[in-house]
Amino acid sequence: MGDGPWTWTCAGSGEGMTANCMAMARRDGLCGPASDAGAIERPSANLCASGKPTAVTGDGPWNWMCSGENGGSSASCSAPVVHDSACGPAHGVGALAAPMEGLCSEGRASEVGGDGPWYWTCYGDNGGARVNCMAPRKLDGECGIASHMETEKVPSSDLCASGTPGAVMGSGPWRWTCQGAGGGVTNNCMAQRPAQAACGMAQGVASPVPPVTGLCAAGTSTSVIGSGPWLWSCEGPQHTQVVNCMAPLQVNGACGNASDIPVSRPPSSGLCSTGLPSPISGEGPWAWTCQGSGGGTSIACHTMNAEIAPPPAPPPPPPAPTASPVAEVPPDTAGAGNECTPTVRRWTITCQQGGYPANYAGVIVGETQVLCPTGVERGVWLSNSCAPSSNSVPISPSPGVMVKPPSPRLSPVTDVLPDIEPLPAGKLQPSAPRLSTPRFKNAAADTSVNFMPGADGLDVNATHALDEVAAQTLGRGGSIVTLNAYAAMPASNEAQDAQRLSLARALAVRGYLMSHGVANNQIDIHALGPAGDSLGDDRVDIKISSP
Questions:
Q1: Chain mean pLDDT for the chain
Q2: Other residues' Cβ atoms within 10 Å of the Cβ of residue 103
Q3: What is the pLDDT of residue 375?
Q4: I want to staple 381 with a disulfide (CB 3.0 to 4.6 A). Which of 105, 115, 297, 405 is the partner?
């Protein structure tokens, strides 16, 4: 009996031989433990539980046979490759909800659990290792209510509405961070001290005069400086904070000398005494606008064509005297036989009639003198009390002293030209008209602008030079531009005609500079007639100096 092999004997008879017999057991081939077990390399042991293994083939999975014995059947065996698991791209990345994709890059994922952070497991294949994975909840850092409050002390609470607060830095303003989590953003936060200095209602509001109220909403104001725009600062206690403030200059447009004067061609200069001129329209009469700035008003101006305009009306009589009666000088007996009578007429005018801005108050007292034998009239200012209405200081000359009228530059009354001479005793002696004396020699001029003989228009070269003068004047701040204008003696051989032409040239230069930003009160002009030097008469010398 037994499981085989089995043996027995076959006994002979009659002295016959006995035979020993055996039968082998049939065995089928069976796969060993290596079969179906994951492997990381080709298996070489435990291939068959019974039977003989054949050679192992393949690169994974690996295959072999377990052959049966004594007619037993063979078994086909195989060992798969071991695969370890690995977390996918969702691992470690902040999310607002449980991740559904990218859980495992290798292996199989379990269900996702948790409320944030979220957890799951990745299982390996064929006996491979497993791994646990996690995704945190994403949180952006947000500043707390402390960042919206002003405080005198270092903030220590309510720094972040979400996220983790960093260290508070600074001494006011104070700064810190609210750091996000799970890939959330980090925000920078800040708390301000209460304002120690701030500009007031006057900030940015155009004004024709320096503002005196509404300068600072907080802090103490410095003095207002400049000639428009107006500048000042608001300073906190012990200069803890300084804020710079500004109010632009308000300029009202005003027609210039060219307005209402008949001409034979469109005027090119003297269009506006203040403001910027618009392009000229019309074919005679001609019209333009002097445009204000900083909220200032604009005004329409025009002039007639001299070829079709009616003759001008005779000039009005001098203003009625208010300070003293008209004084007439007896005729010069030496001049008997001619029609010239030397006279002196006293008059009084307002500051605005004298060319000052609207905010000036006071009066100007002067005389109109007729000089013989030429018959030339000359206006002389005797006293001038014009000053800004908030600071009016009358100025009167000493008795017996004649003060020359100021130049067209609108200056405070204390800035009268220092060109004074005693009034003649008794009657006026015959004399030629005296021209204004220049304030500098040509050698001191910064530049000169040339004109065609008899002309007062600016050419391209002149405008290029004046562009540079305007830039230098604006760059220096508060500088004064002095214009010495000349003109050759005309065919009439009349000095007044030369002086009129030199004045027209000075006004043309002044008008161009004003249209390029130079203030009227920065320009001092002198119409001088013939120059009397070797540099030529048809020019305007220009000097830029500190005020």
A1: 77
A2: 23
A3: 61
A4: 405
Dist. CA 24–CA 4, nearest whole Å: 6
Structure-token pair, residue 408: 């067209």
What pLDDT, on a 0 to 100 scale, did the predictor assign at position 353?
A: 64
* Phi (first) and psi of residue 476, to 5 degrees: -85, -25
**What's the rounded Cα separation, in Å, for the pair 517 and 205?**
19
How many other C-beta atoms are found inside a 10 Å radius of the C-beta of residue 161? 16
**Least-confidence region, from 271-285, 344-358, 374-388, 498-512:** 374-388
- Give yes or no for a contact between 542 and 446, defined as CB atoms under 8 angstroms apart: yes
Tokens encoding 244: 């710079």
Please report, in angstroms and rounded to a whole number, the separation of the first and last CA atoms in the chain.
Answer: 141
Q: In terms of Cα–Cα distance, which of 514, 517, 524 is closest to 474?
A: 517
* DSSP reduced 3-state for 387: strand
Q: Taking Cα atoms as reference points, which of 96, 180, 104 lies closest to residue 136?
A: 96
**Residues ≥6 apart with Cβ < 8 Å to 55:** 64
Question: In which residue are the tokens 């701030």 written?
Answer: 198
d(CA 527, CA 530): 9
254-263, 330-339, 358-367, 525-534, range with the lowest pLDDT: 330-339
What's the full length of the chain, in residues? Answer: 547
Our CA angle for 416, 478, 405, nearest 5°, is 15
Find the Cα–Cα–Cα–Cα dihedral 219, 225, 229, 235, rounded to 10°.
-20
Q: Is the peptide bond before 373 cis (omega within 30 degrees of 0)?
A: yes
Q: Which helix (H) or strand (E) holds 382?
A: strand 376-384
Whether 69 shows a pLDDT value over 80: the answer reads yes
230: helix, strand or coil: strand
Dist. CA 341–CA 366, nearest whole Å: 19
Cα–Cα distance between 434 and 114 in angstroms, integer? 105
**From the centroid of its chain, how far is CA 34?**
82
Residues 6+ apart with CB under 8 A from 72: 26, 27, 28, 29, 51
> Phi, psi (5° rounding) for residue 520?
-60, -35
Structural element, H or E, at residue 469: helix 460-476
Q: What average pLDDT score do residues 256-270 get? A: 84
**Token pair belonging to 14:** 């009659």
Alpha-carbon distances of 232 from 208, 390, 444, 504, rounded to whole Å: 16, 19, 35, 38
Q: How confident is the model at residue 319 (pLDDT cuts 50, 70, 90)?
A: very low
242, HSE (Cβ side, Cα atoms, 13 Å)? 6
pLDDT value for 316? 47
